[in-house]
Amino acid sequence: MKILGLIPARGGSKGVPRKNIKLLGKLPLIDYTINAAKESRLLTQIVVSTDDEEIAIAAEVAGVKRAFLRPAELAQDTSTSLEVVQHAIAFFESQHVFFDAVCLLQPTNPFRENGFIDKAIEKFIDSKADSLVGVLEIPHEYNPHWAFEEAANGLLKIATGEIHIIPRRQDLPKAFHRDGSIYITKTDVVKNGSLYGESVAYIESNPKFHVNIDTMKDWETAEKLLTQIHL
Known about the structure:
By secondary structure, this protein is α/β, with parallel strands linked by helices. It has two domains: 3-135 and 178-226, Alpha-Beta Complex (Spore Coat Polysaccharide Biosynthesis Protein SpsA, Chain A), CATH 3.90.550; 139-174, no CATH class. It is built from six helices and ten strands, in the order βββαβααβαββββαβα. The protein has helices spanning 29-38, 53-61, 81-94, 116-127, 187-191, 216-226; strands spanning 3-8, 23-24, 27-28, 45-49, 101-104, 131-137, 148-150, 156-158, 176-186, 200-204. Strands 4-1-5-9-6-10 form a six-stranded mixed β-sheet, with helices on both faces. A two-stranded antiparallel sheet has the order 2-3. A hairpin with a 5-residue loop joins β7 (148-150) and β8 (156-158). The longest helix has 14 residues, at 81-94. It is globular, with a radius of gyration of 19 Å. It starts with a strand and ends in a 5-residue tail after the last helix. 33% of the residues are buried.
């Protein structure tokens, strides 16, 4: 299976200015994801999707050749990951280069265990699902079966639509949230307007490695994690 490794890294960032090339330890943030992608045996090609010349140069220094610069209209706060992936696919297909799937790796989630990307790709291929996402288990106190929504009458209803709440923690089914570590999607599914499709496989990440950098507080968490893990 031909799989494009796509690292999205726009120049604008409000929470942490210029975060994609800001030094985290001794390396620019984007380098951690580039290095993880380069270790993969199963990614056919790696490309950084950016609108920013300085980020493009940093990616080249880290070993990823430039393929294109992303249009400015796809690098706004309102731009979606789906649009970014669709743009990359369209670019390569215009060059008569075709991929079966795209593996989206966000630099804001910099720490991945060795072999994590290939393990995810293998699970994706074996599952025959439309997509795969990286997840973390939701703590039981936040399980959706124990969450409530406001009903039309102003009272509460169980968020899952059940009439009776599950009384014991031990009886709760596992629930997960996307952690941003990896998304893999069949190309045809992306071209049809979805990053997920109708069937979604998953891989659990190691919570020890998890941080999703959006604010300076997240950045400080990443700095602390960097002293605790070995990459």
